[in-house]
Amino acid sequence: MRAAVLSIPISGIAMIVGAAIAYQATGGRSCARCHEIQPAVDLWNQSTHRSVPCAECHGGLFTFEFHFHWKNFRQLLRHLAGRVPQQIALRERREIDRAMAACRRCHEQEYARWQAGPHSVTYRQIFLDEQHNRKRLLMDDCLRCHGMHYPGNIAALVTPVDTRGPWRLLDQEMENRPTIPCLACHEIHRRGQPMGPQRRPRRAGPQQEEFRPSLALFDRRTQTHFSVASMPVPQVYDNGRPLVMSRDPRQALCYQCHAPLATAERASGDDRTCRGVHEGLSCLACHEAHGQDTRASCKNCHPRLSNCGLDVETMDTTFKDPASKHNIHFVQCSDCHPKGVPRRARGERGLAEARRALD
Amino acid sequence: MALKHVDAVVIGSGAGGGIVAKELACAGMKVVLLERGRWVTPADCRKDDLRNQRTSVLGAPFGPDDEGNPRVYVDLQGREHIVYPSRGAYHNNAMCVGGGTASYGAMAWRFMPQDFKMRSTYGPVEGSTLEDWPISYADLEPFYEKAEWELGVSGDDGPNPFKGPRRRPLPMPPLPPNREYEILKPAALRLGWHPFDIPMLRNSVPYDGRPPCMRCRWCVGFACEVNAKNGTQNTVIPKALATGNCELRTECVAREILLDHKGRARAVVYHDRDGRIQTQPANLIVVSCGAIESARLLLNSKSKWFPNGIGNNHDWVGRNLQGHTYTGAIGLFPFDCYDDLGPGASIAICDFNHGNPGLVGGAMLANEFIRLPYQFVQRVQSFVPKSWGKPFKDFMRQWYRRSIMVQGPVQEMPMWEARVQLDPKVKDRWGIPVARLSGRKHPHTLEVAEYISQKAELWLREAGAIQTFRRVPGPELSAGQHQAGTCRMGKDPKTSVVDPYCRVHDVENLYVVDASVHVTNGGFNPVLTIMAIAYWAAHHILKAHRAS
Amino acid sequence: MSRKHTLSRRKVLQVTVLGAPTHFACRRERSRYRFFTAREAAIVAAICDHIIPPDDFPGAVQAGVVNFLDLQLTGHYRYLQQAYRRGIAEIDAAAQEKFGRSFLELSPDEQVELLEERQKTEFFRMIRDHTMQGYYGDPRHGGNLDAVSWKMLGIPHPPVRGRDHYSLEES
User: Fold this and answer.
1) B74 in a domain, yes or no?
2) Mean pLDDT value across residues B142-167
3) Which residues in chain B touch residue C129, judged by CB atoms under 8 angstroms apart?
4) By CB distance 3.0 to 4.6 Å, which of B375, B449, B540, C36 could disulfide with C41?
5) What pLDDT is recorded for position B501?
6) Is residue B264 in a domain?
């Protein structure tokens, strides 16, 4: 009896030590088979992060965290029982937390921007928003863009699912968790070249972002990532007129959530496709990728003064004041010049000013 | 140990049971609603095109599980097969809260006045038990209206001259037309037909606190992620629960109905979610398990009054099992017809439901819901010269977006031989004898189907199809999601199971409220009729209950 | 120290020592598949690629259909394992009978010829249907990599579809 009791912790420790040796010796390849993670390991081998060892993101073996060992043990049991997981995904929130902490260690700047920006919005802010919940019924589709990693349905997350409230999260721990974590837009195990110093563009900026292979949407329905290259950018219309769409492929990611209704009309649903003076611009022309901040963006195109010779940042648009009736996405010349754009303002002076500013 | 006595037990929470439970609970009765399935949410099948109520090749997420829920199917050659829910021939209807309404396509048809008078309209049909309903369209009209307004129906049947009279229009306008609609409408008008917007239990505008359809491509066979599809699980059942009078017990499988010494229904014996046997006594019992399972439950409830199962002293329980003979055509067009606007089905005609020369009954014709890629493979496989290899891949590429399918549910001639029995050997997980399905379609049903499919083909040709394939099913039994007929409604206890108010003859407090009571199943999707009958039955149950 | 004690200590050791080698047992290279043997997988791959051949869009194999079959045969299609084993063996036997060589040694044209002869068999119909499922079905099941068949058919995925929540006018 005592032998049996003793053997449990001892063989547990032995397993862990054995596993650690196996992991060190083969760099994770030997773990794949019994933990049934071969496809994920194969992908990782071809990914940008191939030089980052598994343990870096998924946690090392020498930890006192019970759940970590328990999860691994259950995977082994499933393997022995011949129950192969049909999909491999990070399911437990601890694992997602751990992965995010790993992202942060290397991509500190991006993490900080994300944290300061609107996409770090928490479950509490999204699902317990009185103003929203009184007007709109909570539904499973909310989770498509907010909380795509949440494993259950909306009724398992929030109660009550009605427009009367008061609302609360069934699991209080969820409250301060982010609804749009790194993994919502990045697939870490996606095929790509490691970004070594020789490959890095000289100046960091949009160009560097563009070639990030990890850009991929986590689709809650299929529980897989779809790469930005394979996703559609819709044709959006302004009263039936097809708008000029930017050819920036990264936008495909934005459109998944900031999507127009089935009519594909501009400004329907959560669409912000630009019409008017900004038509044809990519979302990422103005919005910083991680923080979504647009504060410094005007200067990229309007170095000092606008084409009319005005300081664009002080013009009456939602950029200056969110209450303005001229939404920066849709503002047109005719909004301020209902009788037509004056020739002089458009030409000479404004342009001259702009050129001078550029020099 | 018996549970606390209640006023009513409703077995099954689908289209019929959900509504009866709500009506009784709102009238102040204490109701227990038993459901053998679970609450199924969109998160459970997540728009999986291989694992849904329509294409269940990788499982039936709306229940029941393959394990422990077999049935026996007897094919045309008399061979027996043990069948499972996710595979063919099971004739599955979803088993979950809301039943089929949690995942259906949600067409909300009223039957036509003639559909209730098939025998007197057409005379007897040899080899068929074709009969009139004991109730008429006029009897049901107010209850159709109630269903349309309480659950919410969008559409516009104004231009349909064949419909029965209605007092009130539909509560919601139709969804904006999709491309198939735009292609088919002028063609139907050119043919002198009368196309109109299909009535659907689907919100086109915000209704009753729920949002409108977002028009995704996964509709029929899936649970709605925005709650725009109106089933009993998101309309009447929550209302019933909110009264505090209705208790929903999920994962509870009814085993039999007990009678007392006077031959009145006394209690329901069921297995709770842990498999324990429970006995729920009640003043009133309503069976709403769908045509196959309701019949099975009655047949499994044997007593000295009813040695062959409740209501079965004249051998009518389980007889006349019928569904719909879906028939139609696929047309290939020289231009794109696909616009990715769900649900897809949008336009219908009722020109061929009745009055077809030399034929009994007919069918509504409508364009089909969006066919997901694998569904399209299944649909065209039998038509193409080669169903694999490069030619088939090319076929898919060329025609997937350039095809329209028009089809309709042909009203079947009821068959005495098409039936649900108890299998003498096979039992389910709880040791209850399972349903044994046998029989075939009436030959005339296939003649009507042939005729209707020609009309579908004509419509597609007129719309510009360069090639068409007609699709007429074989003579095998059809039940499945439109299963009906097994507890026929009638005035004479010798030739029917329930009376015009859905009460089982000779048992004053036992009702069957689902498509089992349909005498004939119309040339339409039956769900709105099931709902109307549920309101009709509930109305009479309440009258009888209040009187006593 | 009593005899009883030494025995139990040995037991402790036995159980403990058993733990570690399991990891090294796992290092052995075996079939990449969970159900198929390497040879079966090769035959299945050849059949699948005849059912959906590659052209300017990937064929069945490139789209991961073999992985789909292998995965599903350990999942929902477990009940078809024997049917697959038998069916693959039958095809191989038929190749021996007709050409005197195994299926994998046949030229692609000979393979197609053989499959055409056998296209009415239950096994061929089954593997055809399953190949279609893997290729045209949802990527979550292990086939249709990156939704490649949907792209071929012209179905945008994931669809861009918003719904009426906060509209600009209201906010």
Assistant:
1) no
2) 97
3) 57
4) C36
5) 97
6) yes
**pLDDT band with cut points at 50, 70 and 90 for residue C2:** very low
pLDDT at A209 over 60: no
Are B209 and A137 an interchain contact pair (Cβ–Cβ within 8 Å)?
Answer: yes
Distance from CA of A250 to the nearest CA of B (A): 23
For residue A223, give the nearest of C16, C140, C164 by CB distance: C140
- Report CA-CA distances (Å) from C52 to A160, A163, C12, C36, C63: 49, 50, 56, 20, 10
Sign of the CA dihedral running B470, B475, B476, B477: positive
The CA–CA distances, whole Å, from A299 to A310, B192, C129 equal 13, 64, 58
What does the DSSP assignment read for A86-125? SS----SHHHHHHHHHHHHHH-HHHHHHHHHSGGG-BHHH
Residues of A in Cβ contact (< 8 Å) with C168 = 267, 327
Same domain, residue pair B216 and B265: no
Residues B37 and B125 in one domain: yes
CA B228 to chain centre: 19
pLDDT tens by residue, B240-261? 999 999 999 999 999 999 999 9
Q: Which of A3, A17, A132 sits opposite C8 (nearest CB)?
A: A3
Q: Are the beta carbons of C151 and C77 closer than 8 angstroms?
A: no
Query: Shortest CB distance from A10 goes to which of C16, C21, C30?
Result: C16
The 10s digit of each residue's pLDDT in B454-472 is 999 999 999 999 999 999 9
What type of residue is B263? G
Beta bridge partners of C152: none
Residue A89 CA to residue C139 CA, distance in Å, equals 14
Q: How many domains does chain B have?
A: 2
Distance from the C117 Cα atom to the nearest Cα atom in chain A, whole angstroms? 34
Asked if residue B121 is part of any domain, the answer here is: yes
CATH at residue B113: 3.50.50.60
Q: Which residue of B has its CA nearest to C47?
A: B389
One domain for residues B244 and B313: yes
pLDDT, tens only, B21-61: 999 999 999 999 999 999 999 988 899 999 999 999 999 99
A86/C140 Cβ within 8 A: yes
Q: Does A164 lie at the interface with B, CB-CB under 8 angstroms? A: no
Is C151 touching B (CB cutoff 8 A)? no
Q: How confident is the model at residue C167 (pLDDT cuts 50, 70, 90)?
A: very low
Strand partners, B332: B403, B467
Q: Which residues from C are below 8 Å from A15, CB to CB?
A: 19-20, 22-23
CA distance C31 to chain B (A): 25
Pair (B160, B296) in one structural domain: no
User: Is B502 among the domain residues?
Assistant: yes
Q: Which of A257-266, A335-344, B437-446 has the lowest mean pLDDT?
A: A335-344
Distance CA C33, CA C50 (A): 21
Average pLDDT over residues B269-277: 96
Chain B residues at the A interface, defined by Cβ less than 8 Å, are 39, 41-44, 46-48, 176, 209-211, 214-215, 225-227, 341
Same domain flag for B212 and B345: yes
Interface confidence, given as ipTM, is: 0.94
Domain that holds residue B94: 1-45+90-104+109-136+232-322+416-439+479-548
